[in-house]
Design goal:
By secondary structure, the protein is α+β, with helices and mostly antiparallel strands. It is built from seven helices and 25 strands. A hairpin with a 3-residue loop joins strand 3 and strand 4.
């Protein structure tokens, strides 16, 4: 195999493949990229077993076709630091010669026969089609409540992809909060929810960030995998063998108290109160009664207290409720609208953070139990 490579163009494709390798596996073959070169083009393949990617390499001229498995540990740095705008790669009998400018480097490859066979979407069923922008947004909003570690039950660190009535819903929970985001999609039949691990979903987000926002994403699935195809890139995520709890049962049907408030104003006030409570219990207390404002309080023993009166449109019943300031902040920052609606079903019910119109996003945050002293808190 012999290739002439435009470094700038090639590294964009190489970076996609490199991120899908495993840096912690004891199997060296998982820390490598398979390069398959024909006169029709060059394909890069990489996997960490749970996710995999196949993409076309840009900026490569094939002088002699062939296949080779490149270890990423040193090779990636050589590619990135090679002098000049172009270099050549020659592979013969498992040995590579890289020539760039006046430099010449030699290193070994791994056997092509040891590289695992990657899953293919050739026989996968269609799930739906959606734009890059819409998929990125629904994932960002819908995975808000997922745990970052690999926890048990497995659904805590997974995202539930549910297709119903022409809408793709992405749902997550860590038991203390639940996030749901929905977006209309093209095609696809109603499907039960399928769980994808957050590590793989985060990689999908990263790949989408390098794509044109209006490009179309084709999502397919089979018994073990989900496939995300955009242009010449196919990214695969292994499904989680678990079931998401019946989230529909806890979605509120009505509310007794509602607040319509400027989102930026609320975030600013919450950040100031969080300065007081973030190193203590991260608890903020909301005092709400019908009118034109509500009050947010925070307290940390031996440090201080905070109070913010926030202008808003408040209707419904009076109540006092406490929530986690980080969870509250996360739910506000993921939205893009100028205003946000907060809804409540009494002091013992979840706080719901929603858009001002529609039900295509909701974040439910469980209340924190207040002591008798906190329930009777005064200035």
């Amino acid at each position: 195999m012999k290739l002439t490579i435009n470094k700038k163009l090639f590294l964009q494709s190489w970076g996609l493949a490199e991120r899908s390798t495993s840096s912690s596996s004891s199997m060296n073959i998982l820390s490598s990229v398979l390069v398959k070169a024909t006169f029709e083009g060059v394909l890069l393949q990489a996997t960490d077993i749970r996710t995999s990617i196949i993409c076309s390499a840009a900026g490569v001229t094939v002088v002699e076709p062939g296949n080779a498995v490149f270890p990423i540990k040193m090779v990636s740095d050589l590619f990135k630091k090679a002098p000049g705008e172009e270099f050549t790669l020659s592979v013969e009998d498992g040995k590579v010669t890289l020539k760039a400018g006046r430099g010449k480097y030699n290193f070994s490859t791994y056997p092509v026969s040891e590289f695992p066979k990657l899953p293919s979407s050739d026989e996968a069923a269609a799930f739906c089609k959606i734009t890059v922008r819409e998929l990125a947004e629904v994932i960002e909003e819908g995975t808000l409540a997922a745990s970052t570690g690999e926890e048990f039950p497995l659904y805590l660190s997974s995202a539930n992809f549910h297709l119903t009535a022409g809408m793709l819903k992405v749902i997550s929970t860590d038991t203390r909060r639940l996030a749901l985001s929905a977006v209309p999609v093209i095609g696809g039949e109603d499907r039960e929810g399928y769980l994808l691990p957050m590590k793989g979903v985060k990689e999908v987000q990263r790949i989408l960030g390098s794509m044109e926002p209006d490009a179309e994403v084709e999502i397919l699935f089979d018994e073990a995998q989900f496939y995300f195809k955009v242009g010449n890139v196919e990214f695969t995520v292994r499904r989680v063998e678990s079931r998401f709890p019946p989230y529909e049962k806890i979605l509120p049907k009505e509310h007794v108290t509602n607040i319509l408030v400027d989102r930026a104003l609320l975030i600013s006030a919450l950040e100031r109160v969080d300065v007081i409570v973030r190193d203590f219990n991260r608890m903020v207390v909301l005092d709400i009664e019908p009118g034109e404002f509500f009050t947010m309080r925070g307290k940390a023993p031996d440090f201080g207290t905070a109070r913010e009166d926030i202008g808003a449109e408040v209707v419904g019943e009076r109540l006092r409720i406490a929530v986690n300031s980080k969870f509250f902040m996360d739910s506000l920052k993921v939205l893009r609208e100028p205003e946000v609606r907060l809804s409540f079903n009494g002091a013992a019910g979840h706080m719901a953070v929603k858009r001002t119109e529609g039900e295509n996003f909701i974040c439910l945050i469980a209340p924190i139990n207040l002591s008798d002293e906190e329930l009777n808190m005064e200035d």
